[in-house]
Design goal:
By secondary structure, this protein is of the alpha+beta class. 29% of the residues lie in helices and 24% in strands. Strand 5 and strand 6 form a beta hairpin. Helix 8 runs antiparallel to helix 9. It folds into two domains: 209 residues, no CATH class; 61 residues, no CATH class. The radius of gyration is 22 Å and the shape is globular. InterPro entries: RAG1, RAG1_DNA-bd, RAG1_pre-RNase_H, RAG1_RNase_H, RAG1_ZnC2.
Length: 301
């Protein structure tokens, strides 16, 4: 090893660091930095304007999404190999066709203000965005159906939930949340169109990811989908019924909202193409008054 060139020693050294894993995406991710030895980054990366003059470097910290997912998969390496063995699958033939389902969660953490006030002035509320690997399945080359090789036994436990981004922001501050989680959404979107190539059990394997935004409570869903807050006459985050309608009819509700529809309604709200009064316009968009920025699936967790 002694006579290796310096850069080879450097990369050998890096691989000994805890939490370091080499991986690649095919095709390469768009909107994501190309350095793969990243640790914790500024949550506002790629977003320069300061929010209410809060020093930008104090407001948020996060992992790059793909790096966090790689780390989570490497933590589950033994479970994945055991799952393959239990299902009687030959691990040397299972190198592609892995599917990973990820549940995303986001919630406010309440008041975290510093009681003795010597640090920088930051908002006194915090929000945490995290994810859980719910299941991993594999479709063997000659098989019709995918076989589940890992299922999270305690999907709502603190232990299986991995923090991705911590931010000093009130969960009802739509603009700041959009600014911080915007890059996270961009990374997630580009991962959907690519495959992760990662060494698991000594062989390179390829993984596809599916994201389920089911870990948001109602307040967060309203914030992310641009709906009016809880005092609105439009009570439901899934359909368009008003309080009055819901009180007369407790049974017949259908899930009518979707992320793309909320975006379209926001455009109508913003442009007012029919030159309506504020009241008529509000009735037309059914309580969508901010730009929807993160898709939340209307499903039961």
């Amino acid at each position: 090893q002694i006579f290796q060139p310096l850069h080879t020693l450097r990369s050998a050294e890096k691989e000994l660091l805890p939490g370091f894993h080499q991986f690649e995406w095919q095709p390469a991710l768009k909107n994501v930095s190309s350095s793969w030895d990243v640790g914790i980054i500024d949550g506002l990366s790629g977003w320069t304007a300061s929010v209410d003059d809060v020093p930008a470097d104090t407001i948020s910290r996060r992992f790059r999404y793909d790096v966090a997912l790689v780390s989570a998969l490497k933590d589950l390496e033994e479970d994945i190999m055991e799952g393959l063995r239990e299902r009687g699958l030959d691990d040397s033939t299972c190198t592609s066709g892995f599917t990973v389902v990820v549940k995303e969660s986001c919630d406010g953490m309440g008041d975290v203000s510093e009681k003795h006030g010597s640090g920088p002035a930051v908002p006194e509320k915090a929000v945490r965005f995290s994810f859980t690997i719910m299941s991993i399945s594999v479709k063997a080359e000659d098989e019709e159906d995918a076989v589940t090789i890992f299922q999270e036994q305690k999907p709502n436990s603190e232990l299986s939930c991995r923090p991705l981004c911590l931010m000093f922001v009130d969960e009802s501050d739509h603009e700041t949340l959009t600014g911080i989680l915007g890059p996270v959404v961009a990374e997630r979107k580009s991962m959907l169109e690519s495959r992760l190539i990662l060494s698991v059990g000594g062989l390179l394997r390829s993984f596809r990811f599916f994201f389920r935004g089911t870990g948001y409570d109602e307040k967060m869903v309203r914030e992310m989908e641009g709906l009016e807050a809880s005092g609105s006459i439009y009570v439901c985050t899934l359909c368009d019924s008003t309080r009055a309608e819901a009180s007369h009819n407790m049974v017949l509700h259908s899930i009518t909202r979707s992320h793309s529809e909320n975006l379209e309604r926001y455009e109508i709200w913003r442009t007012n193409p029919f030159s309506e009064s504020a009241e008529e316009l509000r009735d037309r968009v059914k309580g969508v008054s901010a730009k929807a920025f993160m898709e939340t699936q209307p499903t039961l967790d």
